Structure prediction request, 457 residues.
Amino acid sequence: MVNVNNYAIILAAGKGTRMKSHLYKVLHPVLGKPMISHVVDTLNKVDVKRKIVVVAKDAFAVKELLQDQVEFVVQEEQLGTGHAVRMAEPLLEKETGNTIVLYGDTPLITSETINSILNHHIQNHADITMLTTHLDNPTGYGRIVRDNQGEILRIVEEKDASPEEKQITEVNTGTYCFDNRKLFQALKQLKNNNNQKEYYLTDVIEIIKNAGGKVTSYQTLDSEETFGINDRIALEQATQILKRRVNKELMKNGVTIIDAENTYISVDTIINPDTVIYPGTVMFGKNVIGENCVIGPNTQLENVTVGSNVKIISSLITDSVIGDNTTVGPFAHLRNHTVTGANCRIGNFVEMKNTVFGDNSKASHLSYLGDATVGTNVNMGCGTITVNYDGKKKHKTVIKDNAFVGCNSNLVAPITVGEGAYVAAGSTITADVPDDALAIARSYQVNKPEYAKKYRK
Ligand code: UD1
Ligand code: CA
Prediction:
């Protein structure tokens, strides 16, 4: 392949009025990840030298999200897709090479397809290569108008199309590859004499064609890839399409998914073979799951690394790590950089926050461990809590190896329970417990004989 530079422009300045949202359109998530991040991550797998995102002037959140990954240009007023591309003129006009234009509201496009368009473009020495597809229902999309020889003449937008043109089922997907110089020359000639009074990028095709340029198309059979999101109904449909794609890929790679309809796994999740996913499982963000695990039913993981042979049932885990052979749940909540070792047991109604929990340790029932460091082979009795917050500051609890903390104990932090130490059930511990000691911190019991019987009378 000839050594030529590729550039990319992503359009994301549209108002997105059809979303009826305060959230910037391209930030709406699909399977937990903003639409625009899908497009940028896909482009990261393609050989492009510069990525430029066109945003509106109030797109602070988009800039924050993508700040280190792309360059930005601002389109002050949304005067159309052609006008939007032109905003990249100061950055790209003088470059030679190929420029891929993508729409930020089309997140299902794959890097394989983008590479195919690029190859097609280069092999055909084209000035424009458009990605087109056939849709059973082309409503809303720009239609590809061809002559008798099948050559592309122009694109007509739905709102400008005649009744005959509306019958055309081949549509513009909004993904193109242009000769960079010719693109910016043609953009200067755009007019907005159409029904929407917009400068359409799609009119560039006719301009380049009339100047003797070569316009080709690359057709994708997978029309789902080119799905554009304009409203919340389309947002739901895109989520379903992507969900099926991700789940299929996982199943091909040896993961059992009991009910793929009701399992939502992000594109950035890795799951190893022989793991079984039960219904109602949602994994968003970046997760890595080992082999032979059982996840779900009704479990949500976000940015979690899970070892092998782990069971997680009906639980919520975020930003945490779970060691091999550990079981979690039902109804556990682990969050904020909790790290559990191997062979642990974290049972029902246990919450852990920012806690390190050593190998072979157990917290089987009804506990809260916050800002704690728990050693190996520790038994946290039912109902044990770390009292980590004094109303102003959070304090640390340290429980050393082989300690045994009796049921319903309060460990008032900052505090250390020594190695091999015992805490008697029902204690409120306010001073450090030395290694191998027994701490009892509760009042002594008094039995009053026959008292209850008299009282009843
Ligand atoms: C566009 C295409 C249409 C195609 C469809 C595919 C044009 C004129 N029409 O229509 O042929 O079938 O996409 O999904 O290009 N944007 C800006 N600035 C603007 C206007 C739009 O950045 O001034 C951005 C939007 O944020 C969006 C993209 O461009 O990401 C497309 O704009 P949109 O208004 O959604 O165009 P469609 O009507 O979907
Ligand atoms: Ca659109």
User: Anything to note?
Assistant: The radius of gyration is 30 Å. The chain has two domains: 6-226, 315-439. The chain is about 20% helix and 30% strand.
